[in-house]
Amino acid sequence: MWGKVIFTEKPRDNVENIFDRTSEISMIKKVLDTGDWLAILGPRMIGKTSMAKAILNEYKNDYNTLYIDLTGIKNSGDAINKIFNNMPKNLIDRFKDDFEIRGINIMGNSIKLNKKINNTDVMESLFNLLSRKKTMIVLDEFQELSFGINHFINMLHNIMMENKNIVFIFTGSSIGLMKTLLEQKGKNPLAGRNPVKVVLEPWDRQTAVDYLKSGLINCNANINETEINEAINEIGTITGWLNFYGRRRCIYNHNDALNESLDEAVKVARYELNNIINKSAWKRKALKMMAFGSGYNEILSKTKVSTSTLANFLHRLEKLYLIKNDNRTYYIVDNIYRKAIK
Ligand SMILES: Nc1ncnc2c1ncn2[C@@H]1O[C@H](COP(=O)(O)OP(=O)(O)O)[C@@H](O)[C@H]1O
Ligand SMILES: [Mg+2]
Known about the structure:
- The chain is α/β, with parallel strands linked by helices.
- It has three domains: 21-199, P-loop containing nucleotide triphosphate hydrolases (Rossmann fold, 3-Layer(aba) Sandwich); 205-271, Helicase, Ruva Protein, domain 3 (Orthogonal Bundle), CATH 1.10.8.60; 278-341, Winged helix-like DNA-binding domain superfamily/Winged helix DNA-binding domain (Arc Repressor Mutant, subunit A, Orthogonal Bundle), CATH 1.10.10.
- The chain is 53% helix and 14% strand.
- The chain has 16 helices and ten strands.
- The protein has helices at residues 22-33, 48-58, 76-85, 89-94, 96-101, 119-130, 149-162, 174-182, 205-218, 225-235, 239-249, 254-277, 281-292, 296-303, 307-319, 335-341; strands at residues 38-42, 64-69, 104-107, 110-113, 135-140, 166-173, 196-199, 294-295, 323-326, 329-332.
- The strands form three sheets. The protein has a five-stranded parallel beta sheet. Strands 8-10-9 form a three-stranded antiparallel beta sheet. A two-stranded antiparallel ribbon has the order 3-4.
- Helix 12 crosses helix 16.
- The chain is globular, with a radius of gyration of 22 Å.
- Bound molecules: adenosine-5'-diphosphate and magnesium ion (MG).
- Residues 48-49, 140 line the site of magnesium ion.
């Protein structure tokens, strides 16, 4: 039913190489075809970058396409450089004079900004230049822009008002994107053009089994049902971690492959959880309790916070797909996150 699975570290950049996700892809296409902006959400390693790149590839005949990875950027100057470096060469040549008028001097492969100009103004003009042709821009790991987010959102607002030729695809961890873009404290500056959210969720068990089997067959590794079941019990069904296990299992034995995958995954989950906990002792306690499953009243009495504070926190965790609630018993869904908080 799907193309063959090859375990590799690289994100996919073609829909043919995306396993499953057919309903997400068709929903994304519907959104983009109506010219709406899109936010691809989901936990780390679920396949957001892969999806964004594969989708850009689908639209490359009709649009200028730009993929911009915002990982690790420190300020708006960095962001401008990244955008510039990802612009098609022919556009840069064509707009050289426009750039200079706007205070951007092109020097070989980099740019120098005139000190007197405002970085978000520059960015806005870059985007406006791009939008002379239909343009689709992926801003991957958008939450990393959090330092200048208010200016950036303002700029997006201006772009949105000025032209319809530019489509943005934002991706990021659910936690980060909600914080920076989708839940701007009470404000709604992107009203009318709020990105449509598409969430990539962990696979169901059968899809994970099919994915692992297909990749293991392809590298001639031994297929053993017990091992595959254990791998999924331990790792869960997030694609990137299954892919990590698969890559190792193609080279050596099941136990080593599994242990190494778990170590890596738990490290990343811990980092995410620390972001959520944000140094608050009661939040850590609540999450620990939920690793084993815990009732609402029990959490309330142990954390000693007010009902509304706790309810807000739990609601937020549910929106992040981190916990589920079964008859007011709350528990962490993913095994990796359970291990990470213990
Ligand atoms: N649907 C998919 N089919 C095949 N491989 C995938 C799929 N989704 C993710 N992967 C693989 O999983 C790994 C992590 O994916 P990535 O797109 O980097 O995740 P994210 O950006 O959400 O952290 C990559 O190696 C990628 O090739
Ligand atoms: Mg990514």
